[in-house]
Design a protein that fits this description.
eight-stranded mixed β-sheet, binds iron/sulfur cluster, 326 residues, alpha/beta
């Protein structure tokens, strides 16, 4: 299937007084229409930065140094900011962790939905208001005819995030970039919000890039997953395969950090060590200081993504016979 989003060799840099730091280094992936790609990793891995680069919201002085981002074949990484802003409203929806950053406290949710709808679709005021009520109903807001005139603070956190999802999807975008959309919510309602996002996107054929640190959310929502470490994708493949048969030792560690299903093991197995700082990324495989399986080649040469059966992994173990790796 033709990809809706194509990201090729994306490099993001932060120029500074002591030199330029490379925060994303050759990130490539595709998302098909109606597909949900999860992007997962620890904090500092570059997952949110990848989302920000795709939608043109990198915080200065961060900048795309090279690579391409294409939406339905059209290159969007080199557009002027005004053109990109239009694309962001109409063709790309964004959902962030805190719903209050996406909602204006001074306007009712109905007003905000009507504005969004009317900016992007040929609807008059009455039709847009009708559609706003319909959207609130679709996302499970009780008594939408009354709630449409309420302000964001009159909604609970979970309801507010539902409204943000409705806003992001109001103009039928081709792509939604959701960055930790449930992290600020109560565990009890996280699953409902993820279900809603998943259902609406599947119904509308919207491609989704879902950035999260939570493998549980990935397992629940995504079709494929890209695992990031130190600014690079270290494993990518169908969720089922990455979860059940991870090929990269970092993915194996991430999987172990999910609380085990059986009640006996209460402790999380953590990956020893920490993600390297941008100015101290080790040579060779960036994961080698933390990797229980590192061998000589890992310290000298950096692996690219290698076919590992059902997934692709940036690890020399994938291409090295076990006896040579010891
Ligand atoms: Fe570990 Fe080496 Fe694979 Fe890196 S390349 S993950 S250090 S085995």
């Amino acid at each position: 299937m033709q990809s809706l989003l194509e990201v090729r060799d994306l490099v993001v840099e932060f120029p500074g007084r002591r030199g330029t730091l490379r925060a994303l280094d050759g990130v490539s992936f595709d998302i098909a229409p109606g597909e949900i790609l999860g992007v997962v990793g620890e904090s500092g891995a570059g997952k949110s930065l990848t989302g920000a680069a795709v939608i043109g919201l990198l915080e200065p002085p961060g900048r795309i140094a090279s690579g391409e981002v294409r939406l339905s074949g059209q290159r969007i990484d080199n557009l002027p900011s005004s053109a990109l802003r239009r694309i962001r409203g109409r063709r790309i929806g964004a959902i962030f962790q805190d719903p209050l950053t996406s909602l204006d406290p001074l306007y009712t949710v109905g007003r905000q939905l009507v504005e969004t709808l009317r900016t992007h679709l040929p609807l008059d005021e009455t039709a847009a208001r009708g559609r706003a009520v319909e959207l609130l109903r679709e996302i499970g807001i009780p008594a939408p005819e009354a709630r449409v005139d309420h302000y964001p603070h009159q909604f609970s956190g979970g309801m507010r995030q539902r409204v943000v999802i409705a806003l992001a999807l109001a103009a039928n975008p081709e792509l939604v970039v959701a960055d930790e959309p449930t992290t600020a919510l109560d565990v009890s309602i996280q699953a409902q919000v993820i279900d809603l996002l998943k259902r609406l996107c599947k119904e509308q054929g919207t491609a989704v890039m879902l950035v999260t640190h939570d493998m549980g959310v990935i397992a629940e929502a995504c079709d494929r997953v890209a695992v990031m470490y130190a600014g690079r994708i270290v494993e990518i493949g169908p969720v089922r395969d990455v979860i059940h048969a991870p090929a990269h030792p970092y993915t194996v560690g991430l999987m172990r950090s999910i609380p085990a299903m059986d009640a006996d093991s209460e402790r999380l197995a953590q990956i020893d060590g920490a993600m390297p700082r941008l100015d101290a990324i080790p040579p060779g495989c960036a994961f080698h200081p933390r990797c229980p399986q590192a061998f000589a080649r890992c310290r000298a040469e950096r692996p690219g993504l290698i076919d590992a059966g059902r997934t692709r992994a940036a690890c020399w173990l994938v291409s090295t016979p076990v006896e040579d790796a010891e």
